[in-house]
Design brief:
ten-stranded parallel beta sheet; 14% strand; TIM Barrel; alpha/beta; binds iron/sulfur cluster; 12 helices
Length: 353
């Protein structure tokens, strides 16, 4: 198996090769090892931690079937307008103190108006002045002008996911197209914004769809790729298709790593529920995680995630490139376990027998 060598040389892989990665014919652990060698080349054992902030929660006029904020979802929603600046500033500070590399503000909707873009730009300027953290925003469709406004304000990165392949896209959304999404990524590129775009697994996509998205992101030269695992939310039209096992989730991450060797690859939304006890293995292909939950669902607490990162033998990278110490991340219990040795006493063993 010379996957890692070929990936690092920039070679592309054929359809049959990539399909085999998603199937048992390629053993999982050697595959993860190959993915790790590629990850290690650019990122060592470092993990970038992102904290998401749902800066605004509202019913959205779009009909993305996986989203509990869409107009067609019956999921309960507690709407609120854009959080006030002091609240966002505090949350950015808290994210930075909690070891976050990047603070991501997300708003629902098709895309911001010019006035909303200007307001967001002002928020970003203030946060950047006060808090040493990278800023990512995810605010829907943007044109060149709005992307430039955000770039000028100091936004580092724009998130806009492809979500699935072009041919599968009409099955998850009808109010905008895959091409609209690609165009937003192109606008961000032209404005000089870093781009972040990925996929949601578990929405009925085929293996070929997964390969198509991984390749499209390579073609678009997207440097940050979140791979999400659909969290089935009651009331949403698109719920899990039942395809996601921990092994499949790991294979998909390895595939994305080999196709996009230098991208920051994130085991993103839904990793806890879908990877379960295999979660630590996701760090072999991926070098980035969210902590403290997602837009409308809870995730793991930060310290549990840091403990998982530490136990798996990785380290947390700060926005300035330094490594955070475990004690500053709140892990003072260095590998301390508690338990009772009663089981070893002869009388206990006899009693159990
Ligand atoms: S555009 Fe965004 S907020 Fe609106 S339904 Fe789609 S994913 Fe949800």
């Amino acid at each position: 198996m010379d996957w890692s060598k070929r990936a690092l040389e920039g070679q592309s892989f054929g359809d049959a090769e990539l399909l085999s990665l998603l199937r048992p014919e390629v053993p999982l652990l050697p595959l993860l090892h190959e993915a790790f060698r590629v990850r290690e080349h650019s990122f060592g054992r470092r993990v970038r931690v992102h904290i998401l902030n749902n800066a605004q929660n509202a019913r959205c006029p779009e009909d993305c079937g996986y989203c509990s904020q869409s107009k067609i979802s019956d999921a309960p929603l507690q709407p609120y307008a854009w959080k006030p600046l002091p609240e966002l500033l505090n949350e950015a500070r808290r994210a930075c103190d909690a070891g976050a590399f990047r603070y991501c503000m997300v708003a629902s909707g098709r895309g911001p108006t010019t006035r909303q873009t200007d307001e967001l730009a002002q928020i970003v300027r203030t946060i950047k002045k006060e808090v040493p953290v990278e800023i990512c925003v995810s605010v829907g469709l943007l044109d060149d002008e709005k992307a430039q406004t955000l770039k000028d304000a100091g936004v580092n990165r724009l998130n806009h996911n492809l979500n699935t392949s072009e041919s599968h896209y009409p099955k998850i959304c009808s109010t905008h197209t895959y091409r609209d999404r690609v165009n937003t990524i192109m606008s961000a590129h032209r404005a000089g914004l870093e781009t972040c775009s990925g996929m949601i697994m578990g929405m009925g996509e085929s293996d070929a769809d997964i390969i198509e998205v991984a390749r499209e992101l390579r073609k678009l030269e997207v440097p940050s790729i979140p791979v999400n695992f659909l969290i089935p939310i009651e009331g949403n039209p698109v719920v899990s298709d039942g395809s996601l096992t921990p092994e499949r989730a790991l294979r998909v991450l390895a595939l994305f790593r080999l196709v996009n060797p230098r991208a920051e690859l994130r085991a993103a939304g839904g990793r806890e529920g879908h990877l379960r006890s295999m979660e630590g293995l996701a760090l072999y292909p991926a070098n980035s995680l969210f902590v403290e939950g997602y837009l409308t669902t809870r995730g793991r607490e930060a310290q549990d995630t840091y403990r998982m990162i530490r136990d798996a033998g990785f380290e947390v990278e700060r926005a300035d490139g330094t490594i955070a110490s475990w004690s500053e991340l709140g892990l003072d219990d260095v590998f301390q376990v508690t338990g009772s040795a009663d089981i070893l006493k002869p009388e206990v063993r006899r009693a159990e027998l």
